[in-house]
Amino acid sequence: MPKTDGARVVADLKRLAEFGRYKSGVHRPTYSPDDVASRHWLADRFAEAGLVPAIDGIGNVFGRNERARRHLLVGSHSETQPYGGWLDGALGVIYALEVARAFAADPDCAGLGIDAVAWADEEGHYGQMLGSRSFTGAIGEDELAACKSRDGVPLADALRTAGFADRPRAEVDPARYIGYLEAHIEQGDTLDSTGLRIGIVEAIVGIRNYWVRLVGQQNHAGTTQMARRKDAGVAMVRLATRIHDRFAELAGPRTVWTIGRMILDPNAPSIVPGRAEMQVQFRDTDTGRLAAFDEALLAMVAEADRAGPCACTAEPMARVEPRAMDARFQQAIEAAAERHAPGGHLRMPSGAGHDAQILSHRLRAGMMFIPSLNGVSHHWSEDTREEDIVLGAQVFADAAAAILQAP
Amino acid sequence: MPKTDGARVVADLKRLAEFGRYKSGVHRPTYSPDDVASRHWLADRFAEAGLVPAIDGIGNVFGRNERARRHLLVGSHSETQPYGGWLDGALGVIYALEVARAFAADPDCAGLGIDAVAWADEEGHYGQMLGSRSFTGAIGEDELAACKSRDGVPLADALRTAGFADRPRAEVDPARYIGYLEAHIEQGDTLDSTGLRIGIVEAIVGIRNYWVRLVGQQNHAGTTQMARRKDAGVAMVRLATRIHDRFAELAGPRTVWTIGRMILDPNAPSIVPGRAEMQVQFRDTDTGRLAAFDEALLAMVAEADRAGPCACTAEPMARVEPRAMDARFQQAIEAAAERHAPGGHLRMPSGAGHDAQILSHRLRAGMMFIPSLNGVSHHWSEDTREEDIVLGAQVFADAAAAILQAP
User: Fold this and answer.
1) Residue A167: partners with Cβ closer than 8 Å, 6 or more residues away
2) How close B353 gets to chain A, by Cα (Å)?
3) Of A224, A237, A260, the CB nearest to B270
4) What's the gap between Cα B127 and its chain centre?
5) Position B318 pLDDT exceeds 90
6) Spatial separation of the C-alpha atoms in residues A153 and A155, rounded to whole Å
7) Is B37 on the interface with A (CB under 8 A)?
8) How far apart are CA A127 and CA A133, in angstroms?
9) Highest mean pLDDT among A219-223, A337-341, B268-272
10) What pLDDT, on a 0 to 100 scale, did the predictor assign at position A64?
11) Is the pLDDT of residue A1 over 90?
């Protein structure tokens, strides 16, 4: 089995975290100067590991093994959320680099090649998982042309500034790869709270998002009698309460739902709100349960609209279907975990989205988690115990070897 | 009885509305260049009417009758809400001007003096009813020093720019006045929806405001299981729903309550909200009912805090006590209304705050409403039928004369 160097992994992660360091975390939005510099740094590390480096036209960084017969694509994304954590996707990118180095040093891995990759913009600074969707042909030119940052900077301008605009965008060659393997921090506290050290992802959840809008009538909060009000804020809190009650009845053990965004208009203490909006999101790995939630939400919205006095509509937004991870890849990760941490691993869904779900449409895909301290992620205080980082690298390398060595 | 000139009233209102005209309404925030220009214009009109004009150190415009033996202070505020209506307080200021002119032309009013006034900043651009509170000694130097606009401009800077900073602030001389009389549009639709033309204000409502704050724990909306969430948004909508249900049980026929402002933090679709805030307001003329609402709100907040999982607190903000209008002033307005619009008037509370409630602490005070079309106010589309504007001026003048002529 290939032997990983835990100290080298930690050192590389720390060096990568210097690009955009913020407190104990990292601020490295996609295509920012720090992000561009870090991608060139990664390309150089891939080259040092004997891989052929390339950055493509969307910013994906590849390190290809051009000597092997069988290839596994391994990686994650390297940009961060604003003032985000130092591990997150960077962990999976450095694991990919380390696995490539460990394979190169292991005679048993002769002919088996790791292609390492650092995807661009999984975090959605300019669009939805742009790098992996570009690579798998899951995004059209029209959508790319419309992508922009929250500040309104068009993707094309950002790519030009980054120096990536005139490069071709790489496309997956399914014949080249046995599959795709990704490591990431869990981002929840399932592992950390139970003292487990490795998560084997069974499936990545599907996500539904709806904009629910309520339209009443704006009025003076002192002079408008209750009986003739059409208060969109009252309608929103009543509907939101019903949604929380009903979803709790329909939920499976791992279903999650969130009303994370609410807006009153004009949002002034002495004005009866004329408009209200909330974003309702739910996630599950079970397509049937997601459909039941869809149906229940639309029924509650229709009922609120019928009951009045406010008009109520629900607009579905971009949806993500659940994606199962490859069963043999799960077995390989589980066997490797059992070898290095007997009884210290768990099969689990991923509640967060990952590039692996995009890749799973074109390649067999697998995914491994290591613990997040207290479940914190997308925050500069995110962290993982160093022993878990080191253990995860070795388990991940073993799993990659088992997958590539399987007949 | 003094005879008002309806055409002159309408013409003056239209001329005043040119200062800051916006569509069919007016944008004239306190101490803006348009507001300052309009105050100088009003001072000139007061002088033309034979009054001694003066603008004081807070921007109040006075026109004093220095020849009369008995005085009634008459007026309202002249600035507007942002993109507000052309009548609102301006109506009461021009009525005051017209009543002064009508008295001057009527031999029966010899020796009876109207002091006209246009208060500054009733609308709260820099503070709470600054002009009338300054005049009645209801605001301290500390509070004045802390006043600023929503854009952060200190009151002192605004007064300096306006040219009012070095003037003395006028103070009420209770011995000079029989009382204070104010006219205003209703701002609700009680009169308009019932075809009535004059409202006799019995009392101005008291107002309670609370900031209700909920503190949970911010988390990832995909990886945080429902059972361990502390979602401040869920806590807020559940509590808001209970508040609306409970207040409906406690309400009197004219009680109003509003949750006009709600804030989720960080208000992002994929983040479990860690903090939520809402502003809860209620109004009634009955102090006992306001106390019952206070008690119910605090009990619900304490119960939510006890039940968890989010901490919940309520912080009382500036409160306004209900103020009864003088009974004899009400009778005078009612008698005048019955004379000019038999059966076309109504005794009613004011659900909105007015300078009259401030003046009522130092002088007998009375207040008269004319209809608002469809109850619209604080919006540029606010309007009133011209015949109601004309009628209102005459009723108001008759009432003022009756008050001043009473023994």
Assistant:
1) A55, A56, A57
2) 8
3) A260
4) 12
5) no
6) 6
7) no
8) 10
9) A337-341
10) 98
11) no
Longest CA pairwise span in chain A (Å): 84
B244 and A259 in contact by Cβ < 8 A? no
Q: B interface mutation test: which of A87, A189, A239, A258 has the most B CBs within 10 A? A: A258
C-alpha separations of A85 from A126, A296, B223 in Å: 19, 36, 15
pLDDT of residue A333: 98
pLDDT at A128: 86
User: Could you tell me if A244 and A297 are in contact, meaning their C-beta atoms sit under 8 angstroms apart?
Assistant: no
Q: What is the pLDDT of residues B25-49, one digit of tens each?
A: 999 999 999 999 999 999 999 999 9
A138 and chain B: CB distance < 8 Å anywhere? no
Omega of the bond leading into B107 within 30 degrees of 0 (cis) = no
Partner B contacted by A194 (CB < 8 A)? no
User: For residue A375, which residues of chain B lie inside 8 Å, CB to CB?
Assistant: 219-220, 223-224
Mean per-residue pLDDT of chain B = 97
Give pLDDT tens digits for A260-293.
999 999 998 889 999 999 999 999 999 999 999 9
Yes or no, beta carbons of B237 and A234 under 8 Å apart: no
Strand A206-215 and strand A323-324: the pairing is: unpaired
Q: Do B260 and A267 touch (CB under 8 A)?
A: yes
Could you give the C-alpha distances from B133 to B40, B340, B361, in angstroms and in order? 21, 34, 10
pTM of the model: 0.87
Burial label for B204, CB within 10 Å (0-12, 13-18, 19+), is: buried
- As for the ipTM of the complex, it is 0.87
> What's the pLDDT at A116?
98
The distance of A268 to chain B (nearest Cα, Å) reads 5
Q: How far, in Å, CA of A60 to CA of B220, rounded?
A: 26
Q: What is the 3-state secondary structure (H, E, C) of chain A?
A: CCCCCHHHHHHHHHHHCCCCEECCEECCCCCCHHHHHHHHHHHHHHHHCCCEEEECCCCCEEEECCCCCEEEEEEEECCCCCCECCCHHHHHHHHHHHHHHHHHCCHHHCCEEEEEEEECCCCCCCCCCHHHHHHCCCCCHHHHHHCECCCCCEHHHHHHHHCCCCCCCCCCCCCCEEEEEEEEECCCCHHHHHCCCEEEEEEECEEEEEEEEEECECEECCCCCHHHCECHHHHHHHHHHHHHHHHHHHCCCCCEEEEEEEEEECCCCCEECCEEEEEEEEEECCHHHHHHHHHHHHHHHHHHHHHCCCEEEEEECCCECCEECCHHHHHHHHHHHHHHCCCCEEEEEECCCCHHHHHCCCCCEEEEEECCHHHCCCCCCCCCCHHHHHHHHHHHHHHHHHHHHCC
pLDDT band at A9 (very low <50, low <70, confident <90, very high): very high
Query: What are the structural domains of chain A?
Result: 6-205+322-405 (3.40.630.10), 206-316 (3.30.70.360)
